[in-house]
């Protein structure tokens, strides 16, 4: 009712930063108004007024103008605030039209007079609402509030006089059976009058309006934290006494029937655990519940949540790691008519997400499902802070424990988040917690309870059922092969004929197996986590509805799926833990009235796969250290940064192709956060749509409707955004206004994607509806070796150089190294593979190229034809725009030099997209007027990707970024083993779990009852007692092995004790193995690599092995494939030269190899190499004694960049025979002593007979400087033959060959010499005598890629340029064609051997580029096998690394006087496995004595051989003369006979085919002086030779035989 009291309404606008009043408006009841900042005039205006009113006047306006109001004669008891009255008088939805939380709604900004008028309207509506209240409630409000500061003036103004003062009785009368009847109301009235009033207002809304979804405004919950606990006491905490309300509304049995239509709770072996857990939750106790799969876990938390939602409109927050499970649970509740549950997760589209957010905000949702990662979202936190939280529910609670089967570091943030919510809400009492898991050991239970006791001081009550299910029967069937496994599966399905779940361990297997079953007539569908969400839902629903009988799935299926008639669960592969197995098997027989079968098709190899998957998926301490090192780098100039997981991974040197890369990075960051090194902030794009330039919403809307910039859809969206921005203005809390104008907040609430919101906001800025805020911030490079401008121009040059590769009709594949060389040839001197990869990644986003990982660890890029793309225009525009932007920003930074710190290379700058566009359009440019805001954003994105600028915030940050604050400022502080303790314990426990589930399978095969006891004890006994009972003695130690026993025997059972000791050395950072000849060095290294992969925490991409020959690389690869299968393809095994070529992005070739290692070192030092190519955890060096100074420098710089890298060097200084090229065993010695490496000696020779080993030992003692301290000893006990023939004269070739002809030694045979000429002469003589002989040659003058046979094969398999993979049928066809085309070629066998090696090392995928590189990097001398019928002739140097049954050594005029020469003899002798014959004409072996040695003296004179064979090189023929001979050469193959004359060679038809060079004719003349003349020739090699950069021809390199003419 109106009265005669005079009243004025006022409002002010202020600057919150300087606390100045910008505007002031006031209106009196008589309609007179005032608008001025002059407070003296305000005092005059108010002097005739008794009351003054405003919205939030006490906490806002009075802090500015309180003194003026007092001076106007208005005391504090005459000031009315409409804000605290509104929740009392408008508690029910839709609340008051003028209100939004604590704000007055307005369509006009910065008009305090208008807001004063709205406050006046609201005030009189409040009076009207009060007068409409039930008289009893009016009395209650008055008696509670009339003495309270913010309410007394209201009652004074309306002159309310109560006629009753018995407040407790009034409350009982009004709310009798609507609140707990046993509360001490009088005490509550005394202690919490305002809080009680707000609670009763909300309860009254429930009563009068039936509106349980009404909520207390968030500002009330924050300002009056007692409201939440008081509301709980009033309506949500059952009392133990007789109480109508508690009995009717909070009784759990009534609730069970009301919500779920069940009459009783589920029991477990007669125990009512579900009922007890629900009762504890309803009584606000914190609980930990362990129920088996299908045990009614969901109802246990859903029922208390629904009761809380109904009684106090509380929100229960359910945290679960499984997004699909969240949606399933919401859908299942909806099917039962329960619509109060929502989920907010990444699977929702914008409309679904906005709807879910709105339902949480307006109170219509009582259950919110979110993931742990969502707790990092500012939107989620804001939602939770706005609601009364009844309880937090954490599903899969075993993830808290390092002893659980699925420990997740991100779970450790949950406690911190809940604590933060309680603090921000000023709660007096902790929010209760419910934790759930299906299976948990006692140690896991202990860990979970300790976590919540430590974090939140909560004592969790435990409700745990047993693991046994009486209606399930378990069976384990052992299978030997995959086909046997499938047959067993099919038989089980056929015999049972019931709803069946088949569990597999890999996603691909789920698809393949379902498809095969379908093809055989079974009704089966797949289900796994990587499937399309719609297909998953479709298959799952079809299975639940009975349309599909068989579901083939990974463990992702079944959680939350309520299908009671599953009669058969088959584990096609055994689970990786008993916990998971029991949980998955428990999805059978949910209907306790049916008997169900659970089968495991068991093969011990499944355990090996689990071990490998664990080893490859774990986050190692070294990886966390790498992430920490990356964070130190990116926080160099600022302690808080925002980066994507991919950016951090690249900074850490991780490969982009690492599986689950983002998950791995966030896990490492969570570990660093848990250890206190960093604090991870909430995910929040720093983009704001504020700075409205229009005061009235309608004016802005009118402009939008008439603008040509917006299409119709955009107009609708823009109007919604503008209205949202106007409603978000909050002068009381500017921080809230900023939050609500954030792009992600607008997107979430208006169901518009973030990308669309950004586009609209940019358009609104262009129309000047929004001010152009400089909300882009970046660090710009202004000095140093490369400024932002220089980087932009450099990348533009590289891009332009590659553009011609698009100019094709079909897609074409290129190796990265090819592209790098292409750009180099085009003049891009500073190009690197890192820069090429950066460009290709950007192009792949634009769908111009497709990137494929190849088996060499590199990438292949498939270029799409330019005719399908508008590439040239787009590139030109982006290059010009990028150059302009980088120049502009650099110039701006240089103009502000006063802000730069000394030595600072990066300067912080602020700008906007619109600003850049306008500046560009004002410049002189070819694209003036053709630039859109999207073009500017694309250019900025490009500049960011090429690292020209580092964008920190703004419109570019639309992808998932991690906000990190560095806490540990000491750059030298390292993440320690103690920090890693939790994760380490988890991984150790996972290893143990795999062993234990394997033990369970074995027990099931032999004793069913014993196996069941084993399972029961596993969950019920303390860890120590269980292990003591079932794994006594050495069996306990075996549980620590990261491999099962049979696999261990397969991998390491044949190793010697020393070899095994090296394999099991998991701790030494540096290992040096001194390996004697024949000691199994190759075997050791292969098995060590397998051990690193299978038993340790080393992933394949983190290993690097360096050796000295492609043959060694191939041998290691082939053996490793035999041990660990396809994983071997991804372990980087390279020659030193090949690795360096890779680092620099060049295709390896002999011509370029001279300085390649030195250049690579310079590239690493200059940071021109991609970090992931040199970031390794293990470096293995083969033949380490052969390293030269450059190679050792490479090793040292790799160690420098990888401080914790393990280095394993294997070598034998006794076999260092390459000192002539700079090799020195001193480098191996330095590794041993400088790095204090662990030293091992392999001295058991498996290759040679006992007396051969004794002979080499005796000789080796003559070598003065040796690292090995122990003699080699023979594994073989028997003797071979040793013959030593000493001559007194020269010319030993003939007698040596005669001996070979006479002796009947069987097996592979080699003749070793000290010079190439000797080897050639011996080969010639053997051939002349009819012996099959091969000279082991080198190809120092040409690359094998240029050999005509290889070129022919490559042309066949690369005929279709659009195909980058060689299919097996194409490969086989090309092999057959090669055999037919070159059937008479002497090089055919060599080619086939090399191609066979490639085929064996690339069995799955054969990339064309891989084949080309493989051939280019191979050497001729490595391609000769051990044919039993062929005598191989070689120098000792070329024979190193090879072995033969029989070795003949010719040491003519060889006098070893130094260690290098002695080591050469030692290497030659140690090539022999069975028999050794040495021919020499010196006495250095006279004193060597050993068993079964025959010694001969020969004093005869022998003639030198009558023939000499010379193999000609490029220098020996006239290369230019071949251009006219191409047709003739087309009819010739290697091995064909030629006719030789003084000037050159003729073909068999006497046509001139080649001419000797002047140099070779001089040599012919020189030989003629010794009576030798050329008598015959044959084609040795036909190779391609470039005559120009665009053209190449075939040339012939012949073998010419010279004969002595007497």
Characterization of the model:
By secondary structure, this protein is an alpha/beta fold. The chain has 63 helices and 50 strands. The longest helix has 26 residues. The radius of gyration is 42 Å and the shape is elongated.
Any descriptors?
1606 residues; alpha/beta; 7-stranded parallel β-sheet
What does the average pLDDT come to? 87
- Largest pleated sheet: 7 strands, parallel
Runs with pLDDT <50, length 5+?
Answer: 955-959
**Integer-rounded radius of gyration:** 42 Å
Strand order of the largest sheet: 10-11-9-12-13-8-14
**Fraction of residues in helices?**
40-55%
Inertia-based shape: elongated
Provide a count of the helices.
63
Percent in strands:
15-25%
* Termini gap: 144 Å
Structural class given helices, strands, pairing?
alpha/beta
| Total beta-strand segments | 50
In short, what is this structure?
With 1606 residues, the chain is an alpha/beta fold.
List the helices and strands and how they pair.
Layout: E1 7-15, E2 20-28, E3 33-35, H1 39-46, E4 51-54, H2 57-71, E5 79-81, H3 82-89, E6 99-100, E7 103-104, H4 112-132, H5 135-145, H6 152-158, H7 167-175, H8 185-191, H9 193-209, H10 218-223, H11 227-235, H12 244-249, H13 252-260, H14 273-282, E8 287-290, H15 297-312, E9 315-319, H16 323-335, E10 341-343, H17 350-362, E11 367-370, H18 378-386, E12 389-394, H19 412-424, E13 433-437, H20 442-456, E14 461-464, E15 472-478, H21 482-496, E16 500-503, H22 507-519, E17 524-527, H23 533-544, E18 550-553, E19 568-571, H24 578-585, E20 596-602, H25 605-617, H26 621-634, E21 640-644, H27 645-651, H28 661-674, E22 678-680, H29 697-706, H30 712-728, H31 734-740, H32 743-750, H33 754-766, E23 776-781, H34 788-802, E24 812-815, H35 816-825, H36 833-845, E25 849-853, E26 859-863, H37 871-894, E27 906-911, H38 913-922, H39 933-945, E28 949-953, E29 961-966, H40 981-1006, H41 1008-1020, H42 1023-1030, H43 1034-1038, H44 1045-1052, H45 1057-1063, E30 1070-1075, H46 1081-1094, E31 1103-1107, H47 1110-1124, E32 1132-1135, H48 1136-1144, ...
Parallel strand pairs: 1-4, 4-5, 8-13, 8-14, 9-11, 9-12, 10-11, 12-13, 15-20, 16-18, 16-19, 17-18, 19-20, 30-34, 30-35, 31-32, 31-33, 33-34, 36-37, 38-43, 38-44, 39-41, 39-42, 40-41, 42-43
Antiparallel strand pairs: 1-2, 2-3, 6-7, 21-29, 22-29, 23-27, 23-28, 24-26, 25-26, 45-50, 46-47, 46-49, 47-48, 49-50
Helix pairs in contact: 1-2, 3-4, 5-7, 5-9, 9-11, 13-15, 14-15, 17-32, 19-20, 25-40, 26-28, 27-28, 29-30, 30-33, 32-33, 34-37, 37-39, 40-41, 46-47, 47-58, 48-49, 49-51, 53-61, 56-57
């Amino acid at each position: 009712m109106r009265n005669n009291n005079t009243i004025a309404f006022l409002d002010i606008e202020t600057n919150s930063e300087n606390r100045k009043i910008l505007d002031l408006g006031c209106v009196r009841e008589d309609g007179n108004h005032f608008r001025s900042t002059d407070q003296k005039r305000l005092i005059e205006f108010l002097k005739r007024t008794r009351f003054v009113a405003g919205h939030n006047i006490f906490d806002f306006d009075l802090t500015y103008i309180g003194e003026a109001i007092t001076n106007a004669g208005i005391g504090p008891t005459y000031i009315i605030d409409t804000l605290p009255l509104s929740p009392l008088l408008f508690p029910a939805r839709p609340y008051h039209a003028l209100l939004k939380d604590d704000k007055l709604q307005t369509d006009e900004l910065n008009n305090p007079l208008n807001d004063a008028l709205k406050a006046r309207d609201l005030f009189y509506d409040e009076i009207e609402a009060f007068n409409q209240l039930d008289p009893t409630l009016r009395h209650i409000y008055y008696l509670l509030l009339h003495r309270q500061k913010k309410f007394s003036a209201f009652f004074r103004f309306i002159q309310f006089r109560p006629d009753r003062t018995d407040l407790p009785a009034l409350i009982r009368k009004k709310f009798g059976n609507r609140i707990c009847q046993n509360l001490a109301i009088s005490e509550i009235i005394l202690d919490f009058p305002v809080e009680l009033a707000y609670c009763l207002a909300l309860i009254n809304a429930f009563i009068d309006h039936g509106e349980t979804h009404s909520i207390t405004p968030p500002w009330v919950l924050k300002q009056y934290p007692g409201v939440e606990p008081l509301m709980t006491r009033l309506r949500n905490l059952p009392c133990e006494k007789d109480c109508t309300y508690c009995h009717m509304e909070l009784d759990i049995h009534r609730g069970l029937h009301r919500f779920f239509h069940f009459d009783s709770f589920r029991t477990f072996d007669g125990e009512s655990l579900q009922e007890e857990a629900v009762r504890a939750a309803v009584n606000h106790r914190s609980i930990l519940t362990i129920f088996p799969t299908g045990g009614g876990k969901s109802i246990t938390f859903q029922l208390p949540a629904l009761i809380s939602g109904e009684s106090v409109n509380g929100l229960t927050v359910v945290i679960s790691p499984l997004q699909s499970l969240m949606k399933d649970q919401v859908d299942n509740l909806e099917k039962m008519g329960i619509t109060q549950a929502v989920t907010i997760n990444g699977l929702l589209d914008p409309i679904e997400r906005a709807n879910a957010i709105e339902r949480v905000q307006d109170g219509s949702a009582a259950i919110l499902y979110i993931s742990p990662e969502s707790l990092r979202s500012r939107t989620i936190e804001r939602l939770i802070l706005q609601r009364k939280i009844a309880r937090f529910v954490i599903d899969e609670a075993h993830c808290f424990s390092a002893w659980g089967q699925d420990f997740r570091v991100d779970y450790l943030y949950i406690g911190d988040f809940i604590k933060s919510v309680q603090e921000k809400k000023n709660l007096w009492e902790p929010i209760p917690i419910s934790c759930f898991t299906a299976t948990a050991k006692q140690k896991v239970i202990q860990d979970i309870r300790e976590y919540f006791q430590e974090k939140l001081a909560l004592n969790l009550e435990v409700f745990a059922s047993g693991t046994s299910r009486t209606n399930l029967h378990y069976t384990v069937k052992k299978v030997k092969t995959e086909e046997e496994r499938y047959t067993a599966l099919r038989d089980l399905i056929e015999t049972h004929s019931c709803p069946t779940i088949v569990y597999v361990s890999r996603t691909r297997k789920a698809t393949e197996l379902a498809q095969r079953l379908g093809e055989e007539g079974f009704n089966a569908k797949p289900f796994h986590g990587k499937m399309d969400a719609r297909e998953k839902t479709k298959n799952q629903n079809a299975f639940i509805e009975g349309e599909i009988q068989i579901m083939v799935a990974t463990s992702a299926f079944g959680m939350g799926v309520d299908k009671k008639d599953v009669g058969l669960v088959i584990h096609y592969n055994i689970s990786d833990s008993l916990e998971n197995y029991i949980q998955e098997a428990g999805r059978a027989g949910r209907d306790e009235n049916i008997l169900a079968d659970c089968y495991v098709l068991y093969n011990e190899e499944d355990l090996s796969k689990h071990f490998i998957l664990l080893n490859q998926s774990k986050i190692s301490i070294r990886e966390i250290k790498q992430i920490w090192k990356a964070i130190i780098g990116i926080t160099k100039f600022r302690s808080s940064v925002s980066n994507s997981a991919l950016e951090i991974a690249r900074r850490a040197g991780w490969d982009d192709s690492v599986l689950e890369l983002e998950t791995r990075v966030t896990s490492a960051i969570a570990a660093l956060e848990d250890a206190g090194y960093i604090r991870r902030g909430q995910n929040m794009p720093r983009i704001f749509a504020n700075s409205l330039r229009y005061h009235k919403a309608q004016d802005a809307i009118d402009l939008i409707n008439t603008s040509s910039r917006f299409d119709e859809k955009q107009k609708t969206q823009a109007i919604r955004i503008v209205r949202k921005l106007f409603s978000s203005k909050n002068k009381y809390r500017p921080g809230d206004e900023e939050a609500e104008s954030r792009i992600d907040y607008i997107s979430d609430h208006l169901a518009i994607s973030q990308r669309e919101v950004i586009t609209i906001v940019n358009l609104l800025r262009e129309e000047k509806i929004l001010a152009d805020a400089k909300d882009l911030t970046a660090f710009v490079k202004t000095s140093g070796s490369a400024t932002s401008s220089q980087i932009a121009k450099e990348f533009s040059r590289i891009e332009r150089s590659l553009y011609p590769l698009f100019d094709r009709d079909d897609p074409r594949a290129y190796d990265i190294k090819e592209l790098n060389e292409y750009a180099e040839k085009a003049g891009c001197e500073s190009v690197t593979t890192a820069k090429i990869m950066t460009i290709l990644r950007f192009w792949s986003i634009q769908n111009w190229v497709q990137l494929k990982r190849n088996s060499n660890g590199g990438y292949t890029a498939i270029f799409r034809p330019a005719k399908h793309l508008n590439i040239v225009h787009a590139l030109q525009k982006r290059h010009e725009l990028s150059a302009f932007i980088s120049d502009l920003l650099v110039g701006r930074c240089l103009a502000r030099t006063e802000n730069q710190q000394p030595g600072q290379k990066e300067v912080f700058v602020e700008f906007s997209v619109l600003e850049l566009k306008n500046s560009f359009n004002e410049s002189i440019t070819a694209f003036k007027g053709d630039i859109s805001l999207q073009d500017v954003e694309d250019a900025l994105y490009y500049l960011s990707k090429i690292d020209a600028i580092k964008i920190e915030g703004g419109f570019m940050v639309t992808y998932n970024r991690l906000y990190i604050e560095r806490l540990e400022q000491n750059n030298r502080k390292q993440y320690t083993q103690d920090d890693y303790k939790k994760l380490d314990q988890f991984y150790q426990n996972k290893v143990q779990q795999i062993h234990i589930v394997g033990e369970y399978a074995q027990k099931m095969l032999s004793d069913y009852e014993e196996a069941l006891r084993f399972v029961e004890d596993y969950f019920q006994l303390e860890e120590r007692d269980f292990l003591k009972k079932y794994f006594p003695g050495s069996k306990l130690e075996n549980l620590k092995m990261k491999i099962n026993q049979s696999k261990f025997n397969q991998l390491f059972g044949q190793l010697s004790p020393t070899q095994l000791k090296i394999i099991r050395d998991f701790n030494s950072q540096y290992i040096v193995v001194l390996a004697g000849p024949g000691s199994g060095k190759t075997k050791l290294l292969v098995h060590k690599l397998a051990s690193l992969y299978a038993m340790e925490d080393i992933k394949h991409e983190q290993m690097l092995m360096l050796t000295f020959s492609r043959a060694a690389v191939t041998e290691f690869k082939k053996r490793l494939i035999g041990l660990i299968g396809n994983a071997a393809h991804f372990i980087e095994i390279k020659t030193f030269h090949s690795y360096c070529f890779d680092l620099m992005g060049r295709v390896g070739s002999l011509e370029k190899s001279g300085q390649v290692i030195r250049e690579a070192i310079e590239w690493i030092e200059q940071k021109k190499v991609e970090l992931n190519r040199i970031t390794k955890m293990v470096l293995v060096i083969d033949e380490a004694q052969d390293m030269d100074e450059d190679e050792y420098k490479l090793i040292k710089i790799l160690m420098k960049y990888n401080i914790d890298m393990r280095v394993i060097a294997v070598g034998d200084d006794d076999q260092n025979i390459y000192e002539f090229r700079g090799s020195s065993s001193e480098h191996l010695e330095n590794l041993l002593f400088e790095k204090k490496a662990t030293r091992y000696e392999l001295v058991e020779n498996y290759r040679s007979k006992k007396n051969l080993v004794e002979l080499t030992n005796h000789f080796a003692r003559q070598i003065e400087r040796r690292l090995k301290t122990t003699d080699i000893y023979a594994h073989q006990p028997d003797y071979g033959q040793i013959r030593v023939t000493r001559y007194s004269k020269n010319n030993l070739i003939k007698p040596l060959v005669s001996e070979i002809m006479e002796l009947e030694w069987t097996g592979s045979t080699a003749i070793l010499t000290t010079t190439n000429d000797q080897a050639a002469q011996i080969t010639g003589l053997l051939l002349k005598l009819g012996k099959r002989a091969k000279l082991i040659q080198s190809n120092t003058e040409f690359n094998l890629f240029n050999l005509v046979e290889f070129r022919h094969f490559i042309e066949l398999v690369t005929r279709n340029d659009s195909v980058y993979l060689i299919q097996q049928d194409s490969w086989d066809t090309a092999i057959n064609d090669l055999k037919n085309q070159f059937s008479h070629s002497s090089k055919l066998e060599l080619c086939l051997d090399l191609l066979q090696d490639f085929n064996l090392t690339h069995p799955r995928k054969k990339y064309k580029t891989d084949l080309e590189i493989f051939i280019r990097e191979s050497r001729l001398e490595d391609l000769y096998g051990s044919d039993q019928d062929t005598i191989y002739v070689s120098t000792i140097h070329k024979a190193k690394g090879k072995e033969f049954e029989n070795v003949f050594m010719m040491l003519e005029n060889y006098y070893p006087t130094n260690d290098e020469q002695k080591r050469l003899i030692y290497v030659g002798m140690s090539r022999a496995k069975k028999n050794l014959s040495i021919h020499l004409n010196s006495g250095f072996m006279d004193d060597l004595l050993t068993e079964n040695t025959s010694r001969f003296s020969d004093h005869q004179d022998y003639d030198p051989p009558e023939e000499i064979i010379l193999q000609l090189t490029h220098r020996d023929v006239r290369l230019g003369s071949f251009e006219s001979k191409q047709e003739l050469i087309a009819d010739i193959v290697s091995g064909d006979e030629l006719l030789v004359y003084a000037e050159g060679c003729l073909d068999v038809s006497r046509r001139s085919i080649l001419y000797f060079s002047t140099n070779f004719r001089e040599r012919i003349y020189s030989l003629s002086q010794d009576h030798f003349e050329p008598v015959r020739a044959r084609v040795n090699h036909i190779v391609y030779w470039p005559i120009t950069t665009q053209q190449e021809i075939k040339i012939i390199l012949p073998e010419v035989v010279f004969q002595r003419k007497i």
